[in-house]
Amino acid sequence: MPTASLPKPEAETRIARARGAYLGLAVGDALGATVEFLTPGEIRRKFAGGHQNIIGGGWLNLKAGQVTDDTAMSLALGEAILASGGKIEALALASALAFDHWMRGKPIDIGNTVRRNLIRFRQTGNPEAPECEHDAGNGAIMRLLPVALATQNCSETDIAAAFKAQAHVTHNNPLSDAGGICLMRLLHIALRGGDWLQLKTEARRLESSHPEYAFYGKRQQENPSGYVAHTLQAVFQAFFTTDSFETCLIDVVNRGGDADTTGPIAGALAGAWYGEHGIPPRWKNALDKRIVQRCREQAERLVSVQHFPHHNP
């Protein structure tokens, strides 16, 4: 089990960690999609020794190395950030337009809440969905990595504002906001090479303020649903009880349920912590090469150029 003194490769620079986070997201997506909606028992029966390789298939009948909406929406959001001129107040509309363009391309998978609120955007032109207690799904946090990469030098206020600008296009919910902002902070700690205790303290702070997210000492969250609290419980339990990128990802996707989202979120966090070199080559090599290139390029652009340095309302 990791400790506060868990070693990290000294050679992992901020850009290497950013690439690790983005590739980790895509790896988790491609790995988890195979077992999405299966229970842990079904996975054990289908895969001797558990699911450990990127082979495609699943209910979406993916090709090996193909990714789902989690990675696709993240890449769309990254382009929106790069096109927004670094202004938080411009990000909501830029994100809505990018997501709408992505949906018009008839993606292989799209969540019901995302679809409903993007249709509402088309009808009204308003990029902010109304607050809804029923929209506490994980769709806004699965795609937040580009925002985290672009806001590493921002104030807490601007970090929260940037997250909400993209999140509220489809998911305007206080519980989702709290989980997403916490995940942003965790990514920032990992990307700057912070220590393990900082990560645990941040996650426990979320648990203290929002008991729905309690994960420490709780029964293992298996077969997690798309509910944002179930998602982060599974991710945190896997991340904080393993000591490598590989063991973290294998742990979380073999819990089944919404594995094509718990996988990418855990992959992004573990990738930021362990860096690109911590991702098993067999998984990176199995990914669609175009996705690998886009993830690497966006990661480098988002962390190399300062975004959202000031919030000018």
Would you mind describing this structure in some detail?
There is one protein chain. The chain is mainly α. The protein has a single domain, classed as ADP-ribosylglycohydrolase fold (Orthogonal Bundle). The N terminus is likely disordered.
**Secondary structural class:** mainly alpha
Low-confidence runs (pLDDT<50, min 5 residues)? 1-7
Note the gap between the termini: 45 Å
Query: How many individual β-strands?
Result: 0
- What is the CATH architecture annotation? Orthogonal Bundle
H and E string: HHHHHHHHHHHHHH
Helix content: 55-70%
What's the domain count?
Answer: 1
* Mean model confidence by pLDDT: 92
Task: Spell out the CATH superfamily.
Answer: ADP-ribosylation/Crystallin J1
Fraction in beta strands: under 5%
Mind sketching the topology for me?
Layout: H1 14-33, H2 40-46, H3 69-83, H4 88-104, H5 112-124, H6 145-150, H7 156-167, H8 174-191, H9 196-209, H10 228-240, H11 245-253, H12 259-274, H13 281-286, H14 289-304
Helix pairs in contact: 1-11, 1-12, 1-14, 3-4, 3-14, 4-5, 4-7, 7-8, 8-9, 8-12, 10-11, 10-12, 11-12
Summary, kept brief:
By secondary structure, the protein is an all-alpha fold.
Task: Give me some keywords for this one.
313 residues; ADP-ribosylglycohydrolase fold; single chain; mainly alpha
